[in-house]
From TrEMBL:
<dbReference type="GO" id="GO:0016020">
    <property type="term" value="C:membrane"/>
</dbReference>
<dbReference type="InterPro" id="IPR050482">
    <property type="entry name" value="Sensor_HK_TwoCompSys"/>
</dbReference>
<keyword id="KW-0067">ATP-binding</keyword>
<dbReference type="GO" id="GO:0046983">
    <property type="term" value="F:protein dimerization activity"/>
</dbReference>
<keyword id="KW-0472">Membrane</keyword>
<keyword id="KW-0812">Transmembrane</keyword>
<dbReference type="InterPro" id="IPR011712">
    <property type="entry name" value="Sig_transdc_His_kin_sub3_dim/P"/>
</dbReference>
<feature type="transmembrane region" description="Helical">
    <location>
        <begin position="99"/>
        <end position="125"/>
    </location>
</feature>
<feature type="transmembrane region" description="Helical">
    <location>
        <begin position="156"/>
        <end position="178"/>
    </location>
</feature>
<feature type="transmembrane region" description="Helical">
    <location>
        <begin position="132"/>
        <end position="150"/>
    </location>
</feature>
<feature type="transmembrane region" description="Helical">
    <location>
        <begin position="43"/>
        <end position="61"/>
    </location>
</feature>
<keyword id="KW-0902">Two-component regulatory system</keyword>
<dbReference type="InterPro" id="IPR036890">
    <property type="entry name" value="HATPase_C_sf"/>
</dbReference>
<dbReference type="GO" id="GO:0005524">
    <property type="term" value="F:ATP binding"/>
</dbReference>
<keyword id="KW-0547">Nucleotide-binding</keyword>
<feature type="domain" description="Signal transduction histidine kinase subgroup 3 dimerisation and phosphoacceptor">
    <location>
        <begin position="212"/>
        <end position="276"/>
    </location>
</feature>
<dbReference type="GO" id="GO:0000155">
    <property type="term" value="F:phosphorelay sensor kinase activity"/>
</dbReference>
């Protein structure tokens, strides 16, 4: 396992299905990616707004021409002002606030500019926060009575004209605020989706890292036991070339058997790495029922092991607890074989449902010189983590009489 974890890469944010300059104002990241250029959609929307302003302006121009309260010269001036107002609609994206403010006196002076004023108010509500909409919209609504006082409608009473004008202003502003709120909601939903994807990617990466750590611990626990046998017996053959033939044959057999088992265990770990399934290799995971086999293998390798098992039915122990206890015993026997060869190792197992499972491994101090066997001390650290993950605890140390003592307690639910 490497000490440096890979840095999670942020997921790319999805662009809008129909990119718009409004997205640039509501989403700063969108503005940085696309700049402030108008898209094809923006041009189409702007052209539609211009046509709408022109059509409404033409209706207003006809109404002014037929209004007996308006002189012919003023009707021509009204149309000129309306044409200029319609042309100003193309500036609505760049200066929405300025255009809306300018349209207030223009709409009072010209009925033909009514369409441009409506578009300006709608753009203001879409592009700017509520405080701008409230002030400018309120001024526009307050100017409606002045408009109909200067040019009374020939077909509607004064009061109804004012009510209609105020209602139209309110409806346009409400529609614009609805469009803005909807776009903000879409941005919020998109951001939530991106955050959810990022969190899912982080969880997947964390799960992968935890799986790698578990596989690394399993590889250490499994292969260390086999390779220690190889190291000890190969070292014995190296330092005792004049050993009796029977002892050499027995050591060679242990080396061959340990090599075969190590290869099988390595295939099992590789199968987990490839398939992601612990049972893909076909070999069952050892539990507490396999403790007798582990002790027999250690005795066949020349160790003196005393097993004192007080658990009446090892098969009744939960699989996860039994597997953890087996790995702890395996690592403890491996360490005893490496650091205290020739000593008698005592393994005591006891427990019951509701009380927990206790595993104790003890060996005295070795006599004479002990061959130096390399070790990093990571095995005991891994056992402590394994016991903690199972909800138990593990302690180890040197007792007053010497040697080494390891004891673990694992929960056993009733």
């Amino acid at each position: 396992m490497s000490g440096t974890e890979p840095t999670p890469q942020p997921l790319a944010r999805r662009p809008w299905a129909l990119p718009s300059a409004v997205a640039s104002e509501l989403d700063p990241d969108h503005a940085r990616r696309r700049g402030t250029r108008r898209t094809v959609r923006d041009w189409l929307v702007d052209f539609a707004c211009f046509l709408t302003a022109v059509l409404i302006g033409m209706i207003g121009a006809d109404a002014v021409g037929d209004n007996p309260h308006v002189s012919a010269g003023y009707a021509e001036l009204d149309q000129v002002i309306g044409a200029l107002a319609c042309a100003a609609v193309w500036l609505r994206r760049r200066w929405p606030v300025g255009l809306a403010i300018a349209m207030v006196p223009v709409s009072v002076a010209s009925d033909t500019a009514g369409g441009a004023a409506v578009i300006a108010l709608f753009t203001l509500a879409v592009h700017r926060p509520f405080r701008y909409v409230a002030w400018i919209g309120g001024i526009s609504a307050a100017a409606v009575p002045l408009t109909y006082w200067l040019r009374p409608d020939s077909e509607m009473p004064y009061g109804i004209s004012i009510a209609f004008g105020v209602l139209l202003t309110t409806a346009v502003l409400g529609w614009g605020m609805f469009v803005r709120s909807r776009r903000q909601l879409l941005l919020s939903l998109r951001d939530r989706a991106v955050r959810a994807e990022n969190e899912a990617a982080l969880r997947a990466e964390q799960a992968q890292r935890l799986a790698r750590e578990a596989i690394a611990r399993e590889m250490h626990d499994v292969l260390a036991h086999r390779l220690t046998l190889l190291s000890v017996h190969a070292g014995a053959l190296e330092f005792r070339p004049d050993a009796p033939r029977a002892e050499i044959v027995r050591a060679a057999g242990v080396i061959r058997e340990s090599s075969h088992e190590a290869l099988q265990d390595l295939r099992q770990v590789i199968g987990v790495l490839r398939g992601g399934d612990a049972d893909a290799s076909g070999r069952p995971q050892p539990t507490l029922t396999a403790l007798d086999t582990l002790v027999a293998e250690s005795r066949a390798a020349g160790m003196k092991v005393v097993l004192d098992n007080h658990v009446a039915d090892p098969a009744a122990v939960p699989a996860a607890v039994g597997r953890t206890a087996y790995r702890i015993a395996q690592e403890a026997l491996t360490n005893a074989r490496k650091h205290a060869p020739g000593t008698e190792v005592t393994v005591v197992v006891s427990g019951a449902p509701g009380e927990g499972l206790t595993l104790s491994v003890r060996n005295p101090a070795p006599v004479g010189d002990v061959p130096k066997v390399p070790g990093s001390g990571q095995g005991l650290i891994g056992l402590t983590e394994r016991a903690s993950l199972a909800g138990g605890r593990l302690g180890h140390g040197v007792p007053p009489e010497g040697g080494f003592h390891l004891e673990a307690w694992l929960p056993w639910a009733p």
